[in-house]
Amino acid sequence: MTKRVLIVTYYWPPAGGPGVQRWLKFVKYLPEHDIEPIVYCPSNANYPIIDKTLKDEIPENAIILKQPIKEPYKLANLFSKQTKTISKGIIKEKNKQSIPERLLLFIRGNFFIPDARKQWVKPSTNFLTTYIQDFNIDTVITTGPPHSLHLIGLKIKQKLDVNWIADFRDPWTSIGYHKQLKLTNYAKKQHKQLERKVLNQADHIVVTSPSTKTEFETITDKPISVITNGYDKEKVIVNDLDEKFTISHIGSLLSKRNPEILWQALSEFVNEDENFAKHFQLNLVGEVGEHVLNSLNSYGLSSFVNKVGYVSHSEAVKFQKKSQILLLIEINSEDTKAIIPGKLFEYMVSNRPILAVGPKGADIETIIKQTNTGQFFDYSEFSALKTAIKQLFEDYQNNSLKVNAIGLQRFSRQALTKQLVDLINNL
User: Fold this and answer.
1) Signal sequence span per UniProt (predicted)?
2) What is the pLDDT of residues 16-41, one digit of tens each?
3) DSSP readout, 119-140?
4) In terms of pTM, does the model score above 0.85?
5) Domains, the chain, ranges and CATH?
């Protein structure tokens, strides 16, 4: 017998970026397991990134429910065009923020709790409560961020006897950017209270990393499952690798995610080895923070940078498959140990070596080592990082730069969907 599952998400095509991929793929594969997904999303969302090509991946028979949402980001544009970057996650260093930017961050953090989509909670709850009853929905899944969508699940759970799964693609109160939102003590307390309510009233919690599971286990006794992001079969074919020794970062490179340890190593190689300088190119594919660009310039690397900007998902896959090295960077912070970027899994099946820099004890280190897909360095390992780059360049020169990955199948979207199906059927 087919089960109907309602999925409440903010990000849905034509939204671009990593937030849309997870549930787009689940919706693609759930019907193979006799589960009918019904997606509920905004009809007029103010997405910071658009990728119209992702519309082609929506299954033909998918049921998509849409309702309008009121968002304050449209008003933010009246302050300054620069404030648009905040909705993309790019927050400047404190001493470089304009007065409008500081004001916008304060308003965002203290007047829109838990986030700027909070006004969608009440109308969505009213609409979905009726829909769930009319169409015999057994299970509701909310996915955040934005974490205000979990409040929709919370209110529905309080009204109806349905199973509710709260899916956290990122942590809530421990995520790094919370510290940049100029939260008052009252706002911090409100966030904590809402987080606790959601974690203790959902029937099951899903997270994308072991560290987030460990964090949430201190807040709730409800069952928690780790279902990571993953990779899907890609139709993109690339026949030849880049001729240059390209090190490519795909995705947003925020100002806080600025690995000076890497820039220093690359700068030294450029100055020490003419052959390296002749062949080296750093591809930055996606949004890049101003502080990162300034840092690259200070290390004398600007002339080696190919700043591509945002591209469609299919174009990003091309860069992944043709690059010599794939670069993965995470902020050097205790708060980011739990972050496992979705692009890691696409990197792993691109058959190119991964060079990762992140905080000591990061979950990404475990995955990279288990799958034999690259090397990970924390921010204290300058000498080891430099030695690794030297060896990678030598392998490139000898035409022997390759990967022998193992155990990738468990991160396929089909395998991950099976985990979700088992969870739904056991509620």
Assistant:
1) none
2) 888 899 999 999 999 999 999 999 99
3) GGHHHHHHHHHHHHHHTT--EE
4) yes
5) 3-75+111-230+413-425 (3.40.50.2000), 245-397 (3.40.50.2000)
